[in-house]
From TrEMBL:
Keyword Transcription: yes
HTH lacI-type domain residues: 6-60
Keywords of the record: DNA-binding, Transcription, Transcription regulation
Matches recorded under Gene3D superfamilies: 3.40.50.2300, lambda repressor-like DNA-binding domains
Protein name: Transcriptional regulator, LacI family
InterPro entries: HTH_LacI (IPR000843), LacI/GalR-like_sensor (IPR046335), Lambda_DNA-bd_dom_sf (IPR010982), Peripla_BP_I (IPR028082), RNA_pol_sigma_54 (IPR000394)
Amino acid sequence: MKNTPVTIKDIARALNISISTVSRALRGMPEIHPDTRKAVTQLAEELDYQPNQLAKNLAKSRTRTIGVIVPNLSYYYFSAMLNSIEEAALQSGYSVLVCQTNESYLREITNIQNLLRSQVEGFIISLSRDTDNYEHVERLTRKNIPLVLFDRYAESINVSKVIVDNHAAAFKATEHLIENGCQRIGFLAGPAQLVLSNQRINGYRAALAKHGLSVGDQYVFNCDYTQENTIMQTLAMMSLQQPPDGVVIISDRMAYSAIYAMQQKGIRIPDDVAIVSFNNEPISAYFSPTLSSISQPIQEMGTETVRLLLREIEATDNTIPKETKVMETQLIVRGSSLRQRS
């Protein structure tokens, strides 16, 4: 039994006519005799012929495919964003090719090259932890290849972006700790070159300044997102002469490691140290203690990212203005930040 898809060659051979005649008949071209057109369409239906959409798209220089590059799909935030991006793309008739950098700058470059060879029509990218040179991304913009950055981005790259108000989110998290009695608040941040991390540090400092608390750098520790480094930096922070009684942590993923490190040292949460982090991963509601976290509108962010990209892909010229969409966040308060009042 033949399992391969039926092609126009099969129809042409069965009817003893040319491939070009079959093609024109299937497209309803008027120069084809009605009897021939009827015979072609009837046989195509009998054989369950399906047009090769990829070949048709390539003939028109279209693949209707989007390339998505993220740091790591094991991170809840990026896997959830991918779900939203893919759903929005599918609803608009596009498919998605996904690559992950595993936080590697060199792998990010390779991913872009591979996706270009796959003839994607545009890119959605969140930069890797190690990316501090943006030439490979700027090259896409110089070639007028549609591109949208989300979450992790570079301010110097003139493209559309979908982000959250990181300054306001960190301000909110820090002020919550202050209102719950914390006086010495630390910040476990991401790598120093990440715009996102620095915006959150600035929001944290602004909240401290508003309430007249110390804004010294001794309480800010940069981490590389790995469990080992997070544990090391947490222990260093808690070994300060006056350790913090509250900590803002840049992601839930890092918070789990930080809490583990503290608990191994007999530090009670939230009695000794209150904690707020970011991303509101589902497990945060079941972790012990339950984790206070900043929730981001991931579904809306994914939809907006695709909208901005398709706006550029489907434009008839390159004059579409770049747009930065800034989303609001919500603080979800749980047990890790609620201290007993004396």
